[in-house]
Structure formats: structure tokens, C-alpha cells
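Tutorial handout. Part one gives the primary structure; part two gives the three-dimensional structure as C-alpha cells.
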Amino acid sequence: MTGARIALPLGLAVALAIAALAILPRGFEADQLLSEQDDPVALADRAIARSFDASVAAREINAALAADDADLAQSFLELARDRNVPVDAALAAKVERASADAASVQRSVESFTRGLITGEPDDLVGFAGTALGDLFVFGDIRDAVREGGRLASGQQADQLILGLACVGLAVTAGTYFTAGAGVPARVGLTVAKAAQKTGRMSGRMTAWLSRSLRETIDWPALRRAVGSANLAEPAVAIRAAREAVKVEKAQNIMRLAGDVGRVQSKAGTRAALDGLKLAEGPRDMSRIARLAAAKGGKTRAILKVAGRSAIMLTMGAFNLAMWMFWALLTLFGFVSSLKRMTERTTERYCARRKLRLARERAQCEREEARRRAAAVPLDEPTIIYSSSPSLAPRAGSPDRSAGPAGPAEVLPFQRPKVRAAGR
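Part two.
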């Protein structure tokens, strides 16, 4: 067996080992990602571990302070402390001062009033005003009458806000009836309206809500009813909106509103608005609600840094499965090459061992033959004696070995018999 038959699988094993150094880590990571694809908290931790460090924290905090967003800066500060990422003490103090200024009495009153009147909150205090107005029907009536009047007059109306206001009017009665059990959904509808008004809702989420509202609201009946409704007749608007809503078909919208309300209660109003901007459907919003329940005030910073990778796999399951397949294939090829190389090495060793044993056996036989040949003397003739009478020469016969002139030597047992005379 030649060395080339061993060198070929050995070279293949080395090449596969080099490939495995690049493929196997990706395969193991793909396996872990697939096992964690339904756990937004684990996905967020993995994404933050890859992309969040001291430089990112300082950059994002400074950007938030420059944008007068003390809530986001505070969220990044909490995330840095939770991840043991160092933050400059002066920068941390600056964040604390900005948060204190945002919580001042005068600014809080202004924000609360603006949220109550316009329904477009900028912070937690402004959202409190908006939620209060919706909870006491004022906000929903304001939105329903305004958008309904535009719809009845043929002007451009935001049907999404009108539909959410109508659903909110129907839900508010249920909130009172259940002694507050429906508050998260009621709050979620308020956040959804605010997101739509301020342009903080993703296109896909807007499309999903529009489809759901078309199934939930009887739009022809609502158009006919709101034609005669105005701010002087709020009872007519409320009754028309309630009659147009098909409550039995509003479960999906209420489930989404409940998730939005949970995000708002755990992570704040702006986190809920950021979630609606990031989510593409109710499933994404449910993941964000689970993330907010685990991370609290750090949710905004996580969504800002990680994006959609914080709530779902950014790489398709097929691509991850292919990484796992190639990793397993590379590992299998490496093991097979080592196995083949070992087999051929063993075969070559066994063949050489057999050849060596055969040579040793032949050498031993030659030495044994030489020893036997040296034990027998070659200069002395071999004499063979026989006791058979038939082999003895007859009496009186000449001894040919003595030659023609020599007398025949007669052995004692070969003496001729003498016959008596006359017999």
C-alpha cells in the first residue's frame, strides 16, 4: 500500500477541519437561535450582548439628550448599569438632571393639558391627560365627531382613528362594567390612536388594523349615522358609534390593544409608541409586551439598539437550518476522513508486519538449515550393515573389490561346506 492512499484522506481531513473552524460556530449559534426563536427576552439579551458596549451607550445617551428625550437617555443609562457597561459619571449626572427637568411641575401641567386636548402625548404625563380624556369618553367623542364629520362631508378622513375611536367608545362602557378589568385594552387603544396621529405606527401594523376595522365596523351605517352628529349632540355620536361596532368581531383588536397597554404600563408611553413603530402585526406586539414585562424601563433602549432582532429572528429559519446542515455535513466528512485514514494506516501497518514476520521466518529457516548441515561430518563414508543372509556374498565367489589378483577373503559365517567323498 502506497503512502498516497493515506495522504489523500489525511489532506481531506485537514481541509474539513479548517472549514469546520468557520462553519461549526455558526451552526451551533443557529441551533441556539432556533431553540430561542419564541423567547423575545433571550433574543434581546443575545442581540444586546453583540452590539452594546461603552461607546454605544455614550453615543446613544448623548443623542437622546440632544433630542431632548430624557426618557430614552434614562433607559440607556439603566441598560448600561444592568449590563455592567461603564458610563462616565458626568454623563450619568447629566441624564439625572434632564430627567428631573422633565418631571418639573410646570412642564408636567403643560404636557398633561396638551395630551388631554389634542390627544397627542409626548411623555407619560401627556399620555395621562390623553388617557383620562378617552376614559371619560371626551377623547373618543372628539376624534369620532371630527373624523366622522370629514367622512360625511366627503373630505379626507383618517378612518383608522375613526374606527379606533368607535371601538374605544364601545370598550369604555365595558371598562366601567368590569370595574377596570379592561383598562389595559382601553389604554392600548389610546396609545394606538396617538401613534397614528403622530406617525409612529408601522405601515404593516396600520394595514393590519385597517383590515381588522373593516371587519369590525359597519362603515355604511356609520357614514349615515355620523352625518347628523356634531359636537352639540355627543349622545348621537356615541350611540351611532356603538351601534356600528360589531363587538363579537373585535377580539383581535382588543388583544392587540391589551398588549400595547401592558407595554405602556411596564415600560412607559414612549416605549409603547416605539413598539407600535417597530411591530408589523399583533404577534410582534405580543413579543414586545413580554419583553417589556421582563426588562421594564430598559425596553426603549433595547428596541433602539437591537431593532427587530430583539423580538424575532432576523435570519430566516431556512438559512439557520442550512447552517446547521453544513455544520453537520462538515463534521461528518471530517470524521469519515479520519476513519478512512486510520483504516488505511492500519492496513499498511498490518501488511508491513506480515512481510516482516515472513522475512524473519525465512531467516530462521535458513539458519536452522545451516545448523543442521554443520552437525553432519562430510569426510567419512556412511557404512550400512545388514543382517540379512540373502545380502551376504556366496562362498567361493571372488571378491571383486579385491581385484583379480587378490585372494578372496572368507568371513566366518561364509565358510563353504565340504561334501564327503563318495557322496
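Part three, for discussion. The chain has a mean pLDDT of 75. The chain has two domains: 4-31+320-372, 40-317.
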